[in-house]
Amino acid sequence: MIDVIDRILVSEEEIVRRSKELGKQISEDYRKKGTTPIVIGLLKGSVPFLAEIMKHIDLDIEIDFMDVSSYDGAESVGDVKINKDLDKSVKGESILLVEDIVDTGRTLKEVRQLLFNKGAADVKIVSLLDKPDRRVIEINADYVGFEIPNEFVVGYGLDYNQKYRNLPYIGVLKPSVYE
Ligand code: XMP
Ligand code: MG
């Protein structure tokens, strides 16, 4: 464990096990509906989780990525800026959006709206982590890996100043690092 990590909240083994469960559930749900989703990862945080969970989705999926950032400051509401758009049209498609964490809920609300504006027929959300205590927008992921307390976490895609995304676990960052 590197010295900026206070403690490990979710181990690599737990993430792999939970991804298998979620992948199986997602496969069953879409099979029942008779649709196949386009799996869309939000860059960059969702990459390790998407790579893990996609192996356990037993459907004929395609994957794509999007990079968005919110305008001005963390507390901003309103539009998101698209830094990297999708490669293909999603008109009429079912979308499974993959996120690293749902915090205030602002990102998911904006991205979901964006996808509906692009003509998506259906948008479901799978998030590795959920911090329900921090929610300001009423939105929930359809599939959640782990609910976590209100602490700043890094690893498995999640960063602090673009670092620590490569850690193979979810760890609580020592507050001394950012205070
Ligand atoms: P909202 O508030 O829009 O935020 O739901 C989602 C985005 O906020 C970031 N975020 C975190 N990143 N550790 C991180 O590394 C955290 O504990 C954390 N909480 C929120 C993240 O980019 C996520 O996509
Ligand atoms: Mg993010």
Automatic annotation (TrEMBL):
GO terms for molecular function: glycosyltransferase activity. Its main location: cytoplasm. The keyword rRNA processing does not apply. Its cofactor is Mg(2+). This is Hypoxanthine phosphoribosyltransferase. Belongs to the purine/pyrimidine phosphoribosyltransferase family. SUPFAM superfamilies: PRTase-like. It holds the Pfam family Pribosyltran. It comes from Amedibacillus dolichus.
